[in-house]
Structure formats: C-alpha cells, structure tokens
Design goal:
Elements (H helix, E strand, L loop, with lengths): L1 E18 L5 E21 L4 E4 L11 H15 L6 E7 L10 H16 L6 H11 L3 H6 L3 E4 L4 E4 L6 E6 L6 H5 L13 H5 L10 H7 L1 E2 L2 H7 L1 H10 L5 E3 L6 E5 L2 H8 L7 E8 L3 H12 L1
Parallel strand pairs: 1-8, 3-4
Antiparallel strand pairs: 1-2, 2-4, 2-5, 2-11, 5-6, 7-10, 7-11, 9-10
Helix pairs in contact: 1-2, 1-3, 2-3, 8-9
The structure holds 4-diphosphocytidyl-2-C-methyl-D-erythritol (CDM) and adenosine-5'-triphosphate.
C-alpha cells in the first residue's frame, strides 16, 4: 500500500489579464504550496478495476477528480498497449471543497503521481502535468510540486522560492463555483500583466521572495465579486484582517493571512468564531507529495 499527501495551495497573487476564445482566462498567479492537506491510500487490485472510497466527500464517483485522474492515466497507458492492474484508492479529506485551496486538484495530481509510481508507468512529470491540465487548470502545479509563478491558464510555471511564513486559512462555510465566478460579467478581467523581474526586483537571484515583496504585490481580482456574492466571505476576511492583511485565495470561499511565526497564527486561530473553520499551515517550496515520493524512490 502507498500513502501520499495531497497538499493545499494558496494564490498569494491572482491577476486576471483577459479571456481567451475558448472561454478560459489568462491569468498570473503565485501558487504557494502548503504543508497541510488531504491524504490518499493506494493499493493494487488484480481485477483491473478502479475503485475510489471518497470517505466524507459527497461527489459521485465518476465526477471525483481522483477517479477521473486514475482513468485518464490508465487510458493513456492503454494507448501505449500496456496492460495495468487496477487500483483501490481511499481518500481522507481535510480540505474544504469549493474553497479555492485546490483540494480536488491536488487529489487528482497525487493520484497521477501515485499511480504512475505504483503502476510503474514511468511517465515524465511533463506528461503527467499535461494529463493533469486536461482535467483542471490547477492540477499542473501540484504535479510539478513547486511553489511557483504561473501564467497562461495556470499551466506555465516558473518555480519561485518564498520566504517561510505561516498561514491562517479560514473557510467561511460556503462553496464557491469557479465556473460561476469566471463567467460573471462583473469580474475584473483587465489587469495589467506584471513581470517576474518586477516581482524579484531588488532581490538577489537565490534569495526567497521576501514577505515585504509578497505584501506589495498581493491581491486577488476575484475578491470583490466573490465578496459581493457571498457576504460571509467578506465577514471572514474582515475578521482575519484584525491580525494581518487578509485576502481571498483562488475563487474562494477561503481567505487567508500570513504570520511570521506559527505561534502567532495559532493564537489568532484560537479566537476563531465557532461558525467558521480554519487551519494553520506553513508555506513550503516543495510539495509534501514529492518529498514523500523522493523518500520512496531513494530507499528502493
Ligand atoms: C482560480 C484558480 O483556482 C487559481 O488557481 C484556478 O484558475 C482555477 O482552476 P481549476 O479549479 O482547476 O479550474 P478548472 O476546473 O480548470 O475550470 C473551472 C472553470 O473555471 C473557468 N476557468 C478556470 C481557469 C482559468 N484560467 N480560466 C477560467 O475561465 C472555466 O470556466 C472552467 O470551466
Ligand atoms: N477529490 C475531490 N475533492 C474535492 N472536490 C472534488 C473532488 N473531485 C471532484 N470535486 C468537485 O470539484 C469541485 C471543486 O473542488 P476543489 O476542492 O478543487 O475546489 P477549489 O478548492 O475551489 O479548487 P480550485 O482552487 O482548484 O478551484 C467540488 O465542488 C467538487 O464537486
């Protein structure tokens, strides 16, 4: 049996530059991977079937991104005339879905990485990232497994180190549909592009992007619209704002703030009103999934 984590992400910066003919949006975002997330257990099945036990997640099996990722990988291998065993996958969800923290996307990426290992498919990270992109714009970053600056629809990724910070993430309890936000005519979709060079200006190449820089460039073009549609998101952000600058991640509904120490983040968490849920996590440069896989491959 193989157990792998599926971490959350935050969008520390999210700028929407325009809409493409296929309806998708050109964006620029800074994906920060966290050391907190879901967990998946994989076992081989002799009968060739794919089974997913989604635990508390109430999504039909065919729609579960874990199932869809497993099927896509298997189809891809079948085209190469490789016959594969099946898989039994157990998902333990900690991440709220429809939260803008990439829970479903990360589960899918961990499935691609985990089954590539277990089924010995030997597909490259580039191929797995391309398969992931077919399922969702947020999946490639988790497949590649680095905190990164992203462009295009989120698939053109440049790894970027950020200064270590601790995040308090709040889930105000509403699920926000990404498609609904991106199709709303009121969405800000004309932000100017910024360059990675501007982001890094004044910093030595090897140094992680400082908290000051992150704060100067922070912001999320979806925030105003999401808060007007979901007042509870604004309430949660305003509550968090008493401790540190707070903003929306992805298309929400989660909001977050950064703290220098874990203790500072936790002492805000203990004051969280009961109506909301929250967690504290550290920002990491390399995904815990990749760290775990690297341990496995080095011990083999
Ligand atoms: C907002 C972000 O979370 C930022 O990280 C992502 O861009 C969303 O990525 P995601 O949830 O993986 O999105 P997908 O599942 O690919 O797409 C959901 C819907 O969002 C819209 N969508 C998504 C990403 C993007 N760059 N432009 C879009 O317009 C599309 O209408 C699509 O039908
Ligand atoms: N394994 C899964 N975990 C969570 N949601 C899933 C999963 N599979 C399918 N879904 C569906 O995908 C939708 C989006 O879930 P997800 O957790 O990816 O949202 P999100 O946090 O807003 O992600 P993103 O930031 O990628 O938009 C859910 O509402 C759910 O119906």
């Amino acid at each position: 049996m193989l157990t792998l984590p599926a971490p959350a992400k935050l969008n520390l910066i999210l700028r929407i530059l325009g809409r493409r003919p296929d309806g998708y949006h050109e964006l620029q975002t800074l994906f920060q991977i966290l050391d907190y997330g879901d967990s998946l257990e994989f076992s081989l099945l002799d009968d060739g079937s794919i089974r997913v036990d989604a635990g508390t997640l109430d999504v039909p099996e065919q729609d579960n991104l874990v199932y869809r990722a497993a099927l896509l990988l298997r189809q891809n291998m079948q085209w190469q005339n490789k016959s594969l065993p099946g898989a039994d996958i157990r998902l333990s969800k900690k991440l709220p879905h429809g939260g803008g923290i990439g829970g479903g996307s990360s589960d899918a990426a961990t499935t691609l990485l985990g089954l590539n290992y277990l089924w010995q498919c030997h597909l490259s990270i580039d191929t797995l990232a391309e398969l992931g992109r077919q399922l969702g714009a947020d999946i490639p970053v988790f497949v590649r497994g680095h905190t990164a600056w992203a462009e295009g629809v989120g698939e053109k990724l440049t790894p970027l180190c950020t200064e270590k910070r601790h995040y308090l993430v709040l889930a105000p309890g509403c699920q926000v549909s990404t498609a609904k936000i991106f199709s709303d005519s009121r969405l800000t979709r004309d932000s100017d592009a910024i360059t990675l060079a501007a982001l890094r200006e004044g910093q030595l190449n090897e140094t992680p992007l400082s908290s000051k820089k992150l704060e100067a460039f922070s912001g999320n073009d979806c925030q105003e619209l999401v808060e007007s549609l979901y007042p509870e998101v604004r309430d949660a952000r305003e509550w968090l704002q008493q401790f540190a600058p707070a903003q929306l991640t992805g298309t929400g509904g989660c909001v977050f703030a950064a703290f220098e120490t874990e203790q500072a983040a936790r002492s805000a968490l203990v004051r969280l009103p009961r109506k909301w849920q929250g967690f504290v996590a550290a920002g990491v440069q390399t995904s815990p999934t990749h760290q775990q896989l690297a341990k496995l491959t080095s011990s083999n």
